[in-house]
Write a structure and sequence with these properties.
seven-stranded mixed beta sheet, single chain, alpha/beta, 17 strands, disordered N terminus, 394 residues
């Protein structure tokens, strides 16, 4: 080109030059139900319209991941699991507003479009314009953004798949968070901690001076305890088969503890009824076992007792509760992500963590690198960990 002459590129060529390209990276791939994950090189496609590609900084292993890994729900393999994570925006697709490369974010399994009737409602957190599904595939077109190096498609989980160094997520499922929030705390808010705290705070609306029973003191149950404590509950009863959870629970706000193996022929609901003068105001089931759900329901007081189900069981599980107790005013509720609206409530919970109103750091019991991800599975299955942070660059 002669000096002094300007070069004008065709608009299409200029756009293509700056368009995101496929990325080769590492991911933990599950090739078959219950098998150890394999660290493989994969290809992550560019984000399409209304999508964001995130460089994952850290992720965690959740019991929900275990359920899908074991093929108890919506089996699909090969698959990249993971849905509780923290990362940085790498690139955005067309029509994405409010996000730019470099933003610190948390992906979530639920979306929030802020336009549909459900998102506009104060009583519904299940977006209907870009709805959640248990089946793999991006929410808008049902296709995957992940391939192995041979070009074969890899299924995603909840359209997130954070067991990969890069993930493509719909814009409705991405929450911007303050970069001052520690990554491993922000990560927890995307599912487990957000679910537990939210169930007490947003869904049950636990009142000051009230009584609470929590069935299962894993990470979600302990987060419920923190949420109930934050809301001012005066009695928080933890129920768990592991006696070591009594000490752990007390650190998160549990005031009383019941080990079902130590109460003889007396039922758990009878024990809790005796401790509370007829039952608790709020009961939370965090295990995913139908019989435990029934115990949780029967442990609430007549007239206005409220039971919230947080545990994810098998796809074919059925729940049986006494119909007469429903007629006497008890309430049974299901929950997705603890009833929180991700884009609205996760930043609020992050602020509460920064101000120490919520103390969630104790949920992190182990930390490993991506190549040690199977160690995280072993620790959780053996009941030795609450949340294991998996760092991508460790």
């Amino acid at each position: 080109m002669a000096p002094g002459h300007l070069c004008f590129l065709p608009a299409q060529f200029a756009m293509e030059e700056h368009s995101p390209k496929p990325i080769h990276c590492k991911a933990a791939v599950c090739r078959a139900a219950g098998e150890p994950l394999a660290i493989e090189e994969i290809v992550v496609d560019p984000p399409k319209a209304y999508e964001i590609r995130i460089k994952i900084v850290c992720t965690t292993l959740c019991h929900t991941d275990i359920t899908f890994w074991q093929a108890k729900v919506a089996p699909a393999f090969p698959r990249i699991l993971g849905h509780e994570a923290y990362g940085v925006v790498e690139s955005v697709g067309e029509h994405v507003e409010g996000f730019a490369a470099g933003d610190t974010v948390v992906p979530t399994l639920l979306g929030q479009c802020d336009r549909c009737p459900s998102c506009a409602s104060a009583h519904n957190n299940l977006c209907t314009s870009v709805p959640v599904t248990l089946a793999p595939g991006m929410r808008r077109d049902g296709t995957t953004r992940y391939r192995d190096v041979q070009g074969n498609p890899l299924h995603d989980l909840f359209a997130v798949s954070s067991f990969s160094e890069y993930a493509v997520v719909d814009v409705t499922q991405v929450v911007k968070v303050d970069p001052a929030v520690p990554p491993k705390i922000a990560c927890l808010l995307g599912c487990g901690a957000g679910t537990g705290v939210g169930a007490a705070w947003r869904l049950a609306k636990v009142e000051p001076g009230s009584s609470v029973a929590i069935f299962g003191l894993g990470s979600v149950g302990l987060a419920v305890a923190q949420g109930a404590k934050m809301c001012g509950a005066s009695k928080i009863i933890g129920v768990d088969l592991n006696p070591e959870k009594e000490k752990v629970g007390k650190a998160f706000g549990v005031t009383d503890f019941v080990d079902p193996t130590q109460i003889g022929r007396t039922s758990v609901s009878e024990v809790i009824g005796g401790m509370t003068g007829g039952g608790v105001d709020y009961s939370f089931e965090c295990v995913g076992v139908p019989s435990v759900m029934t115990d949780a329901f029967r442990s609430t007081k007549t007239g206005n007792g409220k039971t919230i189900i947080l545990g994810l069981g098998n796809q074919t599980d059925l729940l049986c509760v006494p119909a007469l107790e429903l007629l006497f005013g008890k309430c049974l509720m299901g929950s997705a992500l603890g009833g929180i609206k991700p884009k609205t409530d996760i930043p609020i919970l992050a602020e509460k963590c920064m101000s120490k109103e919520l103390e969630l750091h104790g949920l992190v019991t182990h930390e490993v690198g991506l190549r040690e991800i199977n160690t995280a599975f072993d620790l959780l299955l053996q009941g030795k960990s609450l949340r294991c942070i998996i760092w991508m660059d460790k």
